[in-house]
Amino acid sequence: MGGIRMARLSLLGPLDASLPQAFELLPHRITRYDDLAECLSHLEGVDIVLVDCRDEPVKARDACLRLSCLERRVPILVLAGPDTVSVISPEWGMDDFLYDTATPGEAETRLRCLVTVQMTNQLVAGPFTVDEDNYTAMVEGKNLDLTYTEFELFKYLVGHPGRVLTRTILLSDVWGYDYLGGTRTVDVHIRRLRAKLGPEYEGHIQTVRSVGYRLQAER
User: Fold this and answer.
1) Torsions phi, psi for 123 (to 5 deg)
2) How many other CB atoms sit within 10 Å of the CB of residue 120?
């Protein structure tokens, strides 16, 4: 497979931090930010956001959580160093991570995979795939017969794997702020989703007692 050409990357982290050599050798356009708000305001046309986790992992985690909740989902690639890779977790909402000592070939492969998924408008988490272009939801390649609201709820869960999502967040982001019903409707639709996933996969949608739900991609 050929490489991707001139991807637009945003690198969020300290401006004085050294750029990994792999990115200096690849032909991509990188814009650096040390302020999350500024980065968020310049996401139009960005293919991937690189979050630098080499020196400030807490700040990197918070940035990933914020970026992963955006309506326009931009792939997130975390740059890790040997001292910080152990703290990285899927619950951050990132899509992949890369050692800062990675070769140009490895970096190119990771970038290409993220850009390809973005271009096809597919969300993938473990055995689950949501194709927004074709409006289909699948588990292990098998289509799920979902209603409109079930599809939107499933898409939101798959788009935020590992994240604990409160009923209020689900209600506002899936049903909309103008929805007049209560949070009980979330529980009803979760129950229907689990039934359609079947006994083998229903356990991936975990209940977080007194809070909400979490999609666990791997079990």
Assistant:
1) -110, 130
2) 13
